[in-house]
Design brief:
Elements lengths: L1 H12 L6 E3 L2 E4 L11 E4 L7 H10 L6 E5 L6 H7 L3 E11 L13 E4 L4 H14 L8 H12 L3 E7 L7 E8 L6 E9 L8 H15 L4 E5 L3 H9 L3 E10 L2
Parallel strand pairs: 9-10
Antiparallel strand pairs: 1-2, 2-3, 4-11, 5-10, 5-11, 6-7, 7-8, 8-9
């Protein structure tokens, strides 16, 4: 499974507007964004990597801080090479996978509906609640909206939870995405619920809805990462199971 997940990560980064190939690495660059969570590199699984390859990778980032995300087993010797030239580990996360046979779709919590935003204004609304949930300003930049629009055009999935208690002022309570599938695999990401709507089952409902849409479109494996014990339990309840380890490492 590690190999399949890493191949999907490589395929996803290659779709970035300004993607660069540097030896055994793919840099998923997007010049419209300064976010290191969008602009990062990953190794080709199983490739032989040398110190010279790492030096070339750093140079390929130009003025951007070099940063990588990858499945650990796909390049087991890479971490030491990076640490030797000043990189520092940001996080070591376990990723989880879900298949059609393990998915459990819960009922949508009362007072909410799950929708697929389409207009720029709707995309901005979902991004705003995601930003707020992750501790950022509760607003969406034009660049973020454009990035999401491009992702949808490539086959990404976007689902939002909308509060329906006041139809005249309905607003998004949460949302999440999944990247365009590659070889039957897709990453679910950005699952977020606004602070005032938490502890109502929305995170699980959004995650399951996105995953179900992926499976209906022919995806065989959905994967994601949990940011803490609470989200871990949410994902496990809807059918996700631990499957491997990922590394986040950068040099700032």
């Amino acid at each position: 499974m590690d190999l399949r997940i890493q191949r999907a990560v490589v395929a996803n980064l290659r779709t970035r507007p300004n993607a660069v190939e540097s030896g055994p690495f793919v840099l998923g660059l997007d010049h419209t964004s300064d976010s290191p969570h969008i602009n990062y590199a990953t190794p080709l699984p199983g490739a032989t990597i040398t110190p010279a390859d790492v030096a070339a990778l750093v140079a390929a980032f130009g003025d951007r801080p070099p940063r990588l995300e990858y499945v650990v087993s796909s390049a087991p010797d890479l971490e030491k090479l990076l640490l030797d030239v000043g990189f520092a580990v940001e996080a070591r996360n376990e990723y989880l996978i879900c298949t059609p046979g393990t998915l459990a779709v819960p009922p949508t919590p009362a007072g909410f509906e799950l929708v697929e935003p389409a207009t720029d204004a709707e995309l901005a609304g979902v991004i705003a609640v995601q930003n707020e949930a992750f501790g950022e300003a509760a607003e969406a930049s034009p660049e973020q909206v454009a990035f999401q629009r491009r992702s949808l055009a490539r086959g990404a999935v976007l689902v939002a939870a909308r509060h329906t208690g006041d139809a005249a002022a309905a607003r998004y309570a949460g949302g999440g995405t999944a990247v365009a599938p590659a070889d039957g695999v897709s990453e679910v990401a950005g699952i977020a619920v606004g602070p005032s709507f938490r502890r109502r089952g929305l995170g699980g409902a959004v995650t399951a809805a996105i995953t179900a849409r992926l499976f209906r479109a022919g995806v065989e494996v959905a994967w994601l990462e949990a940011s803490g014990d609470d989200s871990w339990r949410v994902y496990q309840r809807v059918g996700y199971r631990p499957a491997g380890r990922r590394l986040y490492i950068a040099r700032y």
